[in-house]
Amino acid sequence: MTIDLLRKPLLLVALFYSANMIAQQNVINSHQVVSEKSQVFQIKNPDNLLSPYTGMTREHWKDAGLYLLKGAFSYIKTLDDPMLFPKQEGKSYPRDGKDSETEMLEGLCRTMFIAAPLLKENPSLKINNISVADYYRHQIEKLTDPTSATFIKRREGNYSSQNLVEFGALSICLFAAPDVLWKPLSQEKKDALAITMLSYGDGPTVDSNWKFFNIFVLSFFKSEGYAMDETLLEGYLKKSLAHYRGDGWYNDAPCYDYYSMWAFQMYGSIWSEYFGKKYYPEFAAQFKTNFKDLKNNYPYMFSRDGEMIMWGRSITYRFGSISPFPLMGFENDPQTNYGWMRRISSGVLLQFLKNPNLLKDNVPTLGFYGEFEPAVQRYSCRGSAFWMAKAFLGLLVPAENPFWTATENDGAWENELIKGKVYNKFSEKSEVLITDYPNIGAAEIRAWSSAIKGTGDPNDFYRSNENYNRLAYNSAFPWQADGVNGEVAMNYVFKNNTQKWEAVTLYTFKKFENGIYYRDVVLESDAAISMRLADITLPNGILRVDKNVSTKTVDLRLGHYSLPVVKNKIKRSNRAINGYNVQIIDNGVYQLAMIPISGWGNSMEVIDTKGLNPVSNESSIINVSDKFVTTKNPLYITLMLWKKSGEKWTNNELVPIKNLTVSNDNNNVSFDIIGGDKKTVSFN
């Protein structure tokens, strides 16, 4: 057999990458527990030349969307059946056992994020012998039918509701596929829908990303010639732009999280493309300018393998986080590394679609990988999880666009982010710090956290719990919930006046200086308990230099990241280096090491936990503890390190500092990083 000389190198490359992908598939993912659950998404005929890291092309994205949509349609037997899914046990709604029209509206509009781009290309699509286009048109019509269980009343009162959110989503889908979802409706149905939807859009909102739901409703019906409040629309556009803080970050009043990306940035891009550039070009230009800032910052928040960080509320929306990346294709900017953007995007899709715990009852669970109650909010129902389907709006970008045609690559991880070093990206106005660790290919973030719990319903404390209050969030180590006995991962907990362990939540950013990230933190229930914090990122982890400035005696604990049990039991080992105790745990994928340098005595322990980790029911953490008294040395210096399993630790890696000196007032701590720079932590 002979092979054309021009094709032979390509064939060899393909064979190499095929072997590489097979090898990767045979290695258990750090976030995947061995399971016999439902069939995960399969990539048929992967394209290892165009996409050497994931095998996924635009066609595979369509397959992935259809895979999820088929699960939703397993509950649809007739055109009259609503998009209603089994209630997940826990705090999600409905909590009274009664299905609501809003719950069904969520299922309808959010699954439409998948259906709309698929129908745009294939209006005759059928699932289970049901015309998908007929189904969605019929269900849209039923929204204004008073005899229907899915009937949505016109807005009553001067307040906003979840219906506004879903009508915003519906408007996006009507913009995306008007020939299939809007134009075939009768004029009577169009007018009825306009009256209902505008009653929400042409009214009050929440001072957050919610303004975009009004914007999309108002904009769509303006584009169709209906009367609407243009002054209100312009006001909401101005207010939305005022949330921008630079480097791609919008403030979602009051916090920074994925809503900057899967809301503000994604909405701004789609609105500009489908409406703004024609009717409001100045606003569209500003949204596009803000959107361009993304590519120099946001991609660094994902791991080398394309894994997202578990961080912030609504994390059950999962790969909705990638929605801005394909939309970069609308810019058609030659300065954008589209191969890297798609590599990240497809990687995050597979992070979840390849996990056997994602689906239950054929639809996504509420949680992270699978069900995880600590990460669920009360405002979610089962259909809420389909907000992740925003990712598939990327299919609105044409097939010939460079986002789809560029060859996958590892972007900054190839030459810019070099092993043996650590890299920080600090955004001055948002005060967000993104850190990349080439040694393990992980990304990490430190951001806003200053939400007050108060005395309301504890289930509503989603901004003052683990979603935001960790010291840091890492793509390799999803956050673990706190235990009632003081078990804690990547945070401090204190025993409060009720003798319960309470995590710190009220952080105040102070400065980022000489590669050191400074914050102060106060215990919400007792202002007498406070600390001054300094984070120094290292090639293999973090050095913490923290000063306890509490004015009373208090018990406290500090935890490293946690390791889930993913295959075998977690191994433990101890070492002693230069008089310092070293505790190492290893789950077969990663190792974590903790080394108390000052303040903790001999308190270090490994704790096995159950039901607290989003990856596995069983996990382990390393904690240190102390009883602080005002007369003792207030400094707590701690090394929190990591490596991949199987890699050897040198003594200098486990204790990478020397020549440690402390000023008399404990406000200045100086040391040399072995093989690196001299550092001085200054609390002045």
Automatic annotation (TrEMBL):
Transmembrane segments: none annotated. Residues 57-409 form the DUF2264 domain. It comes from the Bacteria. InterPro entries: DUF2264_N, UCP014753. The keyword Aminoacyl-tRNA synthetase does not apply. Coiled coil: none annotated. Residues 1-23 form the signal peptide. This is DUF2264 domain-containing protein. It comes from Flavobacterium circumlabens.
